[in-house]
Please model this.
Amino acid sequence: MPALDPLLETLSATRTELLHTADSVAPAQWLARPAAKAWSTAEVIAHLTMVERTVTDSAGRVLLHPPKPLPFFRRLHLPLWIVARRILRRKSPIPLDPALLGAKENMLAELRVARERTLAFLTETRDRDLSAYRWPHPFLGNLNFYEWFRLLANHEVRHTKQILEIVDTLRK
Model:
């Protein structure tokens, strides 16, 4: 069974860096887009909130059934680090919910609630080996539970970089 503590530490570290970066965004620039088709910081945070909720909710639903065995070749997937590097830019398959957009502090509070749910799920399932449970990522391939939660950390690194780019562009 994979050790959970390193995963929890990684999730904590990436969240700390994301919040530090989000704090650097002035409230007046929170909803500002750096370009016509680019996301604002608020939209990035709404996206992160939606993805985290989706992963945690999906994990809860998948756990209601026994794990489905997959042949080895179907368990292969692209490396998770590719997400953090922003090598490939992809459009999110989850449409952005405009109802999530709002004041900076309210949105960051919602993001914190989503993470609390994730941590509660991981803590509640700590004594179970969840590596046999999988579901497909739309781009990377089939990921097991631990990979999905590591993906959340890589996803935050990716979007922390994006927020830094937004801040830099808006300052110019």
The chain has six helices and two strands. The CA atoms of residues 61 and 167 lie 37 Å apart. The radius of gyration is 17 Å. The longest helix spans residues 145-171.
